[in-house]
Amino acid sequence: xxxxxxxxxxxxxxxxxxxxxxxxxxxxxxxxxxxxxxxxxxxxxxxxxxxxxxxxxxxxxxxxxxxxxxxxxxxxxxxxxxxxxxxxxxxxxxxxxxxxxxxxxxxxxxxxxxxxxxxxxxxxxxxxxxxxxxxxxxxxxxxxxxxxxxxxxxxxxxxxxxxxxxxxxxxxxxxxx
Amino acid sequence: xxxxxxxxxxxxxxxxxxxxxxxxxxxxxxxxxxxxxxxxxxxxxxxxxxxxxxxxxxxxxxxxxxxxxxxxxxxxxxxxxxxxxxxxxxxxxxxxxxxxxxxxxxxxxxxxxxxxxxxxxxxxxxxxxxxxxxxxxxxxxxxxxxxxxxxxxxxxxxxxxxxxxxxxxxxxxxxxxxxxxxxxxxxxxxxxxxxxx
Lengths: 177, 197
Fold this sequence. Notes:
The complex is a heterodimer of chains A (about 180) and B (about 200). Helix content of chain A is about 80%, strand content about 0%. Chain A is an all-alpha fold and about 180 residues long.
């Protein structure tokens, strides 16, 4: 726990410091370059608004109606057998289909359960640990016209499953053991 | 697919609300969550601006190329089908380096370029080659050093330490990537045994 905290706390400043020194060594105008890149960050944050609005509204309609509770009720006994919290199962499924959809679910879980709760941390890790398989598949294979995907889908989905289970294991081990 | 899920969540929600008599809660949820989504996006501006600014310095300084050099032996092992010094190798290396730094915008074009080269290597067929699937596997389990967006969300919801998920995320993503590579190898050898070429 102590190590995890200090690793996570030291890692970012060290990385930033290294990048700044390296950039200066390579004669990059650091401040001007920073501003230029920052503008891209701004447009990403703005561009994400319609995706988040769409997803968060749909998720909260689903939750407020009580539909999510029914699904949780049905799923909990099955998943508790494998020590999988039922709350994050919809997120795990959405993660393979839509990156922004999963981002909406992650924010909803963090808002509902709190960012420092077990579910909040778990959702954060699941969101960060794999990429959207179907998106990658569509973009990469679509761009070069690959029609016969062979075993690619199986590999991508199994990797997502591993990432999902590894997230549960990592959070349980590092924070709750 | 996402279109059906999105529509389904809303329509099922309305139907369940009609049966449950919770339509007033649903009405409230629509407007509060729309507002929350916008607030959240605005809260994320700060960290996204900062992080992409820092990463631009890394990109301009040529840190991508340095990382790519470090990956060279790994790529040789992962993609035994690619001839030495083939352009596909360079694109794959840049793709992996960009993913590691969380530069999604830079990673995708590099990945597509790599796919183009791999298709040429595969005789231009519309069938996925071994190397293509390996590249895909690495990308779907992408290792990212700093999950920026998530840290931003955690900050917006007043986390005590928004960055404490960096270590578990690295661990989980490393396991996922190794798993992806092993599964990819397994299916490749199995397809050989099935009498492919």
